[in-house]
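The passage that follows is intended for readers who have already worked through the single-chain material. We present the inputs for a multi-component assembly, then the predicted structure in tokenized form, and finally a short commentary. You are encouraged to pause after the input and sketch how you expect the pieces to fit together before reading on.
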Amino acid sequence: MTGVAPRLGTLLVLLTGTALVSVSIGAARIPVLEIIPALLGQIEGTSRSILVHLRLPRVVLAIGVGGALALAGTTFQALLRNPLAEPYVLGISGGAAVGAVGVLVAGLGARLPWAVPLGAFVGALLAMFLVLRVARAAGGSRLDSRVLILAGVVVGAFFNAVILLLLSIADVESFRSAIFWMMGNLSGATWSGNALLALYILPGTALLLALARPFDLLARGEDVAFHLGVRVERTKLLAYVVASLLVAAAVAFAGVIGFVGLIVPHALRLLWGPGHRLLLPASFLAGAAFLLMADTVARVVIAPAELPTGVITALAGVPLFVFLLVRRGVQ
Amino acid sequence: MDDQGQNVHLEGPARRVVSIIPSMTELVVALDAREALVARTRYDRDPSLAYLPSLGGTIRPNLEAIADLHPDLVIAWSDEEHSPLSRRLRDMGIPVYHASVQRIEDIHRHAQRLGHLLGRDAEATGFLSDLEARLTAVRETPHPGTPPTVLYIVWHDPPQTAGPGTFLDEIIEIAGGRNVFHDARSSWPQISMEEIVRRDPDVVVAATRHDGEPDDGGWLRRPGWQELTAVQGGRTLAVNADLFNRPGPGVAEAAEILHQYLAGVTEARAGGSELDEANRTEPGTVP
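Having made your guess, compare it with the prediction:
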């Protein structure tokens, strides 16, 4: 159990097992052995509707979003060499929230269901663009990671103020919708949405996985990496943009789900060390499994109601992370 | 006496009334005391109240604006009792009537008490007998066959319904339907889409629009709704939230609208599948 392949294999088994359990439980219980017959149309009725149109797309969305967030988190931590870096460090969550909350407060949520993810995506891209511009303007031709973090923080703070402004003029119903959206939830999952998400996640993930060696070298310092043949500025810009696109797409369909992108990469580093050839794919698989577990709990724990998934990721993720941190400290 | 068990004592009938509860504002109007109102909230969209200054939302109304109107009676939510709003109003010597409204019987109680505070006892009696007569007329015209199951959507994102012990649960039953979430554990439960699909109600009634707003049923394109037989069969009714989501004098009209709609649904059902097919329509809208 020391190589890359066995560890990734373990995570893949964990993810598959979680997916089977998640597909099986919920408002209508669907035995694992009946999943395939139901998909083939051999079982009719509401169970099949729930499975095909609600639960399966949601499981797929959880895998995509969880994987994307954890992978983006790993990327940002590698680039910024800051343990507090997470997927929303470049202000993306704030920008996405302004877009989504703006659509909801304008009362467009009921008439145009696709307007919310679109608004979130546009807001996220706007935030990313703004942060990169601010960092460039302040840091010159180089992308200075400290300036970038600072730019992300202030742009994020500005967007937060805009959100509070929007919420304070919202009526009761859109206020509820907006708060629910900001806590992050996967109940909006559809096959068409998932297809759109895959357009970002598949190439984005492949690109980031290919950057494992430059990331390892960057971890030793940008000068060292440069002398070892890494085109530092190009690598950084590419990684920022690709990871941000992943996060923007994830936020558009799932709202702001916190802690996955912060905790999963750190937990894996604590367990298996900092090598990116393992860390990058492992964080995708572990992030997917973690969000899927959290979403399954969110679906069933107070049935027939549902908790926002983001609540569970924080409630479960933080104690788990503290445990890993303390355990390493003791050793 | 108000819902906090406190005696509200006035020297004479209230002449300057501020209500921060829209359903109670409507009740004051129904008791023929519209001229006593000196303010409204932004949820009081009735054009006949538009001349009144708005205090903003109902959750944190502007205390200074209220005090500035020199009201001799403020009608506030019962759970405001311990809030700074109620305390400070009382410190200023302004009487506060606390009201909680969940069921139709609460409307009776408040009509009588507010009628008394407004010097409109006779109007309160008249209003209540009229309300009772209209509800009885609806109740005593049952539909053929088993009562259709009704899913009532208070708000669609995240889906929230009316549970037991609410006036909406009562209205559904009076109108000849059966609330599909009558067994819920709370009054206003938030429910998952999976649970809605599993229960597959006969009819979906949704209060997703306000007075004068259109509802093209766009939210029905969100995942899951198209799986409901009610949606596939066009048995969805978009109702005015300002009328249906308010436990005020509008409950009689709400019951009548719902009763009429359910009558159409049960008739189509009795007429067989052909009629049901012919009855397929776009989501219905009530003016």
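Commentary: The longest helix of chain A spans residues 46-80. The two ends of chain A are 20 Å apart (CA to CA). How closely did your sketch match?
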